[in-house]
């Protein structure tokens, strides 16, 4: 057993932290208020190579492991969850899925492009297919030398920004396939930015595919690999979102501590009030538990072991820890916590999405129970 | 024991609900979007007598007591928490402080207009350095001849930008401070030196304006003192005690709205081939909401009965606010969860409810202060006095 980060991981963490403190922190509030993606930050992140963090060097990336990548997401999320989730989706849902399932030609063609900062997305959800991707209705019909994709995809993160979108569609009544769609196609229309409670800097869009032709060579993986693509991509995303939740919780705790130290009531710093000390203690315990679970899941991934169950647990725990941290630290702020002028209210709104995106709490608990009961030979269905 | 409402209260609820469904619901989303109250809603509520529900008819009120007022707050908050908050600050704390301790003369002067909604009222207690520690107020009132001159600032004042009359707690004797040296004054908005700030940008309650109030040597005649000189802090604390009951009532409405929306949705939303109402995770969330709401409803109306029948209610009122605000936050959070991504969309109404609910755990005494109030009542019963 060795719980320490190695020298390289420590070096990267400091680099990420420095970048987040210098570049991300200062625009986080503007990103929320303007409801626009932090494009300048993303460009700077791309220049640093952060958007190709886990893409192998052979394809123009930095070839970092999942644990180091989790450190990147955590550091970004300490200051801006929208930025962290943008990078998580680009990397974990899109680029790494292309790396895992793509042909050599596809990887050569797209990954260097993505590593240099062209954002990617993965479109699964539909209006009638949220927790149940099996209910999707978007179709992929085979025509001469191509597939025609037809349907509506909703809640697609990076939907308008992405140049490359992986789309999961129905290949027949039973099967799903995955396709690489280049978004400049005139048959792909991007809907308006759905206004949301939090994560207002995240580019969440509806995509309309109108018999969009996709060359046959853009099929991702085997013909009917769609379900496996969804499973593997979601698993990777959950690990990244768990790291994001960790960062957001740490960001909230830092704000709560600062406020408790600065605010005086009853003649002393409110940090001396036992009720608030309990909030800070509980929040710290949660954060350290989460950190260990996130890093354990990442270590499993990096050592080639099955990490799906732990990514699931880490993301489920993470969403809860981030919610509790934001909630308690907001409470420490009192009336100031309800003001848009204090960052804690943004974090409180932002982290709410973590209990829905990448799998609702209910879907995740089902998945965890399915694994745990499966160990004992009990098969369950939703 | 009799848990039924009187015919008058039943009729009152029917009238309020009709108003809420016909006039308020269609405007609630716009209020939030545009970030300001709807004057037409306020006018209609004034005509209907909503601004004076609990107060005696002698002062132009409806005479429906604390129970009637709780009904009003529950129904308003079911549909539009911003509007409920305007009414809550107006009736529940501002007018209430005058109603409890004001002289007959000052009540005759102001309450009829307040009850008719011709004058909107605000309650000025909190200051930049006096939040939970309300006794730490610094706004100063200095006597010169027949008038006091008020100097200082109030903060987070609900209805601040709207109010025509403001009840202000000011220090009249710095040597004594809040305990024996603070006095409540009624200030009219036109008076020279009074200036409300711009509405604050808040996470929720966008239709209920909150602001600072600046007092720059505002001259207030002695006649505009509410209650006794020096005992203003007691008046305000007593007012907050009673206000907690109706805050609890409001949270019943918010919680019930969350449950109702969830029930409509789970019937229709199909995943895994069947309505999600068939999922146990969903069923249990619904059951927990209903259990918490029923407990809250009983608690709140029982406490309103304690108030209306002149029984002690301070501990129960603190519990109403504590349990109610946490119940409302949990219920609306579950409703958002049940609705999935739709729950997070600003095109739909749940995220507004979610943003609006959170302040319930903070305003009019944070829930930490409520716990101190409750513990203090409990400990007093066994002979222990505590300080915050």
Give a structural overview.
The complex is a heterodimer of chains A (382) and B (388). Chain A folds into 3 domains: 109 residues, Acyl-CoA dehydrogenase/oxidase, N-terminal domain (Butyryl-Coa Dehydrogenase, subunit A, domain 1, Orthogonal Bundle); 104 residues, Butyryl-CoA Dehydrogenase, subunit A, domain 2; 148 residues, Up-down Bundle (Butyryl-CoA Dehydrogenase, subunit A, domain 3), CATH 1.20.140. Chain A is 53% helix and 15% strand. Chain A has 382 residues and is α+β, with helices and mostly antiparallel strands. In chain A, strand 2 and strand 3 form a beta hairpin. Chain A contains 10 helices and 10 strands. The mean pLDDT of chain A is 97. Chain A has a 4-stranded mixed sheet. Chain A has a 4-stranded antiparallel sheet with strand order 2-3-7-6, with no helix packed on it. With 388 residues, chain B is an alpha+beta fold. A 4-stranded mixed sheet of chain B has the order 1-4-5-8. Classes of the chains: A alpha+beta (382), B alpha+beta (388).
Short overview:
With 382 residues, chain A is an alpha+beta fold.
Keyword list:
heterodimer; A: about 375 residues; alpha+beta; Butyryl-Coa Dehydrogenase, subunit A, domain 1; Butyryl-CoA Dehydrogenase, subunit A, domain 2; Butyryl-CoA Dehydrogenase, subunit A, domain 3; 3 domains; 4-stranded mixed beta sheet; about 55% helix; B: alpha+beta; 4-stranded antiparallel beta sheet; 10 strands; globular
Radius of gyration of chain B: 21 Å
Number of helices of chain A: 10
Largest interface: A-B, 47 and 43 residues
Number of domains of chain A: 3
Total beta strand runs of chain A: 10
Give the count of structural domains of chain B.
3
Distance between the termini of chain B: 37 Å
Largest sheet of chain B: 4 strands, mixed
**Form type of chain A:** globular
N-to-C order of helices and strands of chain A: HHHHHEEEEEEEEHEEHHHH
Fourth-level CATH superfamily of the largest domain in chain A = Butyryl-CoA Dehydrogenase, subunit A, domain 3
* Structural class by sheet pairing and helices of chain B: alpha+beta
Read across the widest sheet of chain A, the strand sequence of neighbours is 1-4-5-8
Helix fraction of chain B, binned, reads 40-55%
In CATH, what is the homologous superfamily of the largest domain in chain B?
Butyryl-CoA Dehydrogenase, subunit A, domain 3
């Amino acid at each position: 057993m060795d719980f320490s980060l190695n020298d390289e991981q420590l070096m990267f963490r400091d680099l990420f932290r420095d970048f987040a403190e210098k570049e991300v922190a200062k625009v986080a509030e503007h990103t929320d208020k303007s409801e626009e993606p932090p494009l300048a930050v993303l460009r700077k992140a791309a220049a640093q190579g952060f958007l190709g963090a886990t893409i192998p060097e052979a394809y123009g990336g930095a070839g970092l492991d999942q644990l180091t990548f989790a450190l990147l997401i955590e550091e970004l999320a300490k200051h801006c969850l929208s930025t962290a989730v943008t990078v998580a989706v680009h990397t974990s849902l899109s680029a790494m899925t292309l790396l895992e399932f793509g042909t050599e030609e596809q990887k050569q063609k797209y990954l260097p492009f993505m590593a240099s900062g062209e954002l990617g997305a993965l479109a699964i959800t539909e209006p009638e297919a949220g927790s149940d991707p099996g209910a999707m209705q978007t179709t992929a019909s085979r025509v001469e030398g191509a597939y025609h994709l037809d349907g509506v995809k909703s809640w697609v993160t990076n939907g308008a920004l992405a140049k490359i979108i992986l789309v999961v569609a129905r290949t027949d009544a039973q099967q799903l396939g995955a396709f690489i769609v280049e978004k400049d196609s005139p048959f792909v229309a991007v809907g308006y930015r759905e206004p949301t409670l939090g994560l207002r800097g995240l580019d969440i869009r509806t995509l309309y595919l109108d018999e969009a032709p996709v060359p046959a060579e853009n099929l991702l993986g085997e013909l009917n690999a769609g379900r496996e693509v969804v499973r593997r991509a979601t698993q990777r995303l959950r690990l990244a979102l768990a790291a994001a939740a960790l960062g957001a919780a740490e960001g909230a705790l830092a704000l709560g501590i600062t406020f408790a130290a600065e605010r005086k009531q009853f003649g002393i710093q409110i940090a001396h009030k036992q009720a608030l000390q309990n909030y800070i203690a509980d929040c710290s315990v949660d954060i350290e538990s989460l950190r260990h679970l996130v890093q354990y899941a990442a270590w499993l991934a990096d050592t080639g072991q099955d990490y799906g169950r732990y990514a699931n647990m880490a993301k489920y725990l993470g969403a809860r820890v981030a919610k509790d941290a934001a909630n308690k630290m907001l409470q420490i702020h009192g009336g100031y916590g309800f003001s848009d002028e204090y960052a804690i209210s943004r974090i409180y709104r932002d982290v709410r999405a973590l209990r829905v995106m990448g799998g609702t709490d209910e879907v995740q608990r089902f998945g965890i129970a399915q694994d745990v009961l499966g160990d004992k030979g009990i098969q369950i269905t939703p | 024991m009799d848990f039924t409402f009187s015919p008058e209260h039943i009729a009152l609820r029917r009238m309020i609900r009709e108003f809420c469904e016909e006039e308020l619901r269609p405007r609630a989303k716009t209020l939030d979007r545009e970030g300001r109250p709807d004057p037409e809603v306020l006018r209609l509520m004034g005509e209907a007598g909503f601004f004076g529900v609990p107060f005696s008819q002698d002062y132009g009120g409806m005479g429906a007591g604390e129970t009637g007022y709780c009904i009003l707050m529950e129904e308003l908050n079911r549909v539009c928490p911003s509007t409920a908050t305007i009414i809550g600050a107006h009736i529940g704390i501002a007018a209430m402080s005058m109603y409890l301790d004001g002289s007959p003369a000052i009540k005759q002067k102001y309450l009829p207009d307040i009850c008719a909604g011709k004058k909107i009222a605000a309650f000025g207690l909190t200051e930049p350095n006096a939040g939970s520690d309300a006794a730490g107020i610094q706004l100063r009132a200095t006597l010169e001849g027949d008038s006091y001159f008020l100097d200082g600032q109030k903060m987070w004042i609900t209805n601040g930008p709207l109010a025509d009359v403001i009840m202000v707690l000011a220090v009249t004797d710095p040597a004594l401070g809040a305990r024996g040296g603070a006095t409540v004054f009624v200030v009219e908005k036109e008076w020279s030196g009074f200036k409300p700030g711009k509405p604050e940008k808040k996470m929720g309650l966008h239709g209920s304006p909150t602001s600072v109030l600046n007092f720059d040597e505002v001259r207030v005649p002695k006649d505009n003192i509410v209650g006794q000189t020096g005992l203003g802090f007691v008046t305000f604390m007593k007012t907050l005690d009673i206000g907690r009951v109706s805050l609890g009532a409001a949270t019943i409405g918010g919680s019930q709205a969350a449950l109702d929306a969830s029930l409509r949705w789970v019937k229709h939303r199909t995943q895994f081939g069947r309505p999600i109402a068939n999922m146990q995770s969903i069923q249990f969330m619904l059951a927990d909401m209903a259990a918490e709401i029923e407990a809250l409803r009983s608690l709140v109306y029982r406490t309103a009965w304690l108030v209306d029948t002149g029984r002690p209610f301070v501990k129960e009122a603190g519990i109403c606010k504590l349990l109610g605000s946490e119940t409302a936050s949990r219920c609306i959070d579950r409703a958002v969860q049940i609705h999935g991504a739709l729950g997070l969309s600003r095109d739909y109404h749940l995220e507004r409810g979610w943003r609006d609910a959170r302040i319930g755990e903070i305003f009019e005494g944070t829930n930490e202060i409520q716990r101190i109030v409750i513990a203090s009542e409990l400990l007093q019963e066994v002979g222990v006095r505590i300080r915050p």
